[in-house]
């Protein structure tokens, strides 16, 4: 990657983070949302769902962390539609700069924000009884994996945003694929009670694979190596598909 | 390579959205250090031409060069030469005026100190020094537009593309922006600006290209175009519509009479003279209005059809 791309990405990511920090209400709400999710699922569904040997909160936290990472990635597409609408993307495209930086900066800055909201979520989870008992290096790996997942979904979200070009449409288009992916997964309930078609979908769903890996890495249970391998294949495939699509959509924007 | 005759040179440029041709074999040359006004209604192809020249859009056919750089083969070369200010103020509301300009400066790879120095100088020049450290969200619409124009000048481009820079501005802000464009031209910047207002093109441009249906239908200096377009229009309303035929006879010597009762006047004292003649004949006038030719008049004159068209952009 050339120096120009890195330099321009840093300038634009700095711009975006600074903008975000100056929207205090936005920050507060984006931190409150994960907290509410943890508390709702932990205390509303917690008593009703049978997760066998593990407690529900230990079962839930990896799932809800991954869901938050995916929802956080939706911001990428929304932000891009905003910059398209204001003419800022046109301005950038008319500058002698690295145009790929427009997307790299956006996905990177959104990742930074996700680090914060995931941290808040983990703290709330710990307070609500989440007890990861695996070695620290595994917990670190799990955190990196979730961030990687968020990054991958940022590119999908970027492509959607640049294609639909309108914030409202981008938002609803985002939810349409995010909700089935996160709910038809092992995030909130074990997959073995689902009807066969849904269960088959859930078991091959990359969200399930990431969650199963994170569970293995944090609270033990089934060996995380097998889902981890499939996760890496998914990541690579999705990036190979959606980075070129997003770049092309930017060129046509 | 900067070998070129014209800073902006467009030849047979064609851009189609589906079946609609936004640009249809358009050709245009813009001379160094001049302001050229692209005048035309929505859908005439003004914005499309600006987007092609700003490398935001590729033409299907034809060529466009900016200071010798082809927009298709050498987009980066073009981007080093242009500044673009669009119809909207593309500034970040959460950032201060200074931060907005510094961000753009850094994207031109200026060292931090130079980006800062240049931002200060431009803010000063645009009368934004007092509000430099306030967020752009607190600016008035006109100030935001000025900041946007300022951003487009951060790279000191020799060619400036302005897409309807004054649309939506109040008259005073419009005048301020005009003064800035004048000053830029005097400093040697080549400006291509689109507008829907004849007055604006008249005031700013040394050459005007009138666009319709994606092609240039008239080109010349404002004086030459206006001579072709015709003179002021005197519209008269009479108390009694039955008097119209008599009035038409009385006003015949003042210019070309059009329906129901308006005169393309050719004499400077036409309105006074018209009133005098009507009054002497005992015809009661209810309204009288002297109007400059509008863009609609120009269009009607040049094309035989009014400006209102269905397609946009």
UniProtKB/TrEMBL annotation, chain A:
Coiled coil: none annotated. InterPro entries: ABC2_TM, ABC2_TM_bact-type, ABC_2_transport, Nod_factor_ABC_transporter. It is a multi-pass membrane protein. Residues 25-253 form the ABC transmembrane type-2 domain. Keywords: Antibiotic resistance, Cell membrane, Membrane, Transmembrane, Transmembrane helix, Transport. Its main location: membrane. The keyword Membrane applies. It comes from the Bacteria. The keyword Transmembrane applies. Belongs to the ABC-2 integral membrane protein family. This is Transport permease protein. It comes from Actinoplanes couchii.
TrEMBL record, chain B:
It is a peripheral membrane protein. Residues 8-238 form the ABC transporter domain. Signal peptide: none annotated. SUPFAM superfamilies: P-loop containing nucleoside triphosphate hydrolases (SSF52540). It comes from the Bacteria. It is found in: Cell membrane. Keywords: Antibiotic resistance, ATP-binding, Cell membrane, Membrane, Nucleotide-binding, Translocase, Transport. GO terms for molecular function: ATP binding. Its main location: membrane. Belongs to the ABC transporter superfamily. Drug exporter-1 (DrugE1) (TC 3.A.1.105) family. This is Daunorubicin resistance protein DrrA family ABC transporter ATP-binding protein. The lineage of its organism: Bacteria, Bacillati, Actinomycetota, Actinomycetes, Micromonosporales.
